[in-house]
Specification:
Elements: E1 12-15, E2 19-26, E3 31-36, E4 45-51, E5 55-57, E6 61-63, E7 66-68, H1 72-82, E8 93-99, E9 102-108, E10 110-116, E11 127-132, H2 137-141
Antiparallel strand pairs: 1-7, 2-3, 2-6, 3-4, 4-10, 5-9, 7-8, 8-9, 10-11
Length: about 170
């Protein structure tokens, strides 16, 4: 367990030795994008996408970003403050953002990290390096549902374009 303040335990979900900036927020689809651009030391851009964002508290820049789960009390406080209907509770995450330059949180349905060789644009098939969604885990497993070993993680998947739309049996 780690915490940024006493009485606020959390579990580290993911750590990045990169600097992420708040890049865009689209109100229509409630998507938040934090981006770590390529530089002399990094050959890939990383995009951290939060989908179906209900509430958030952010700083503009996160240096050496860590993503943490929150305990049940913090989850309940964020959920209550956001005004999201209780029936959506099992389909949402609260991810705490912690870094050298600030902290924050995002309440959302899913978070995904994509890797890109260029510094602009989006490839047709994203190179997903990490993803997390609640998938009802909180309801089925209780407060330890967001342990990193229990969280559904998506590994990089490549789709052969010549196989699209063909029978794969």
């Amino acid at each position: 367990m780690t915490s940024d303040t006493p009485g606020t335990p959390s579990t580290l979900l993911q750590r990045f030795d990169r600097t992420f900036h708040v890049w865009t927020y689209g109100v229509g689809h409630s998507q938040l994008l934090l981006r770590a651009r390529k530089n002399h030391a990094e050959e890939y851009r990383l995009d951290l996408r939060f989908v179906a964002v209900d509430s958030m508290q952010l700083v503009r820049r996160y240096e050496c970003l860590e993503l943490h789960s929150v305990d049940d009390d913090a989850f309940a406080r964020v959920f209550e403050a956001s005004g999201v209907p209780p029936r959506w509770r099992d389909s949402r995450l609260v991810v705490r953002l912690q870094s050298r330059t600030g902290t924050g949180y995002v309440q959302c349905a899913r978070v995904t990290v994509d890797r890109h060789p260029d510094d602009e644009g989006v490839p047709a098939v994203p190179d997903v390096v990490w993803s997390l969604s609640p998938s009802g885990l909180r309801a089925r497993l209780g407060p330890d549902a967001l342990r990193p070993d229990a969280a559904p993680v998506t590994q990089r998947v490549r789709v052969d374009p010549s196989r699209r739309g063909t029978d794969r049996s």
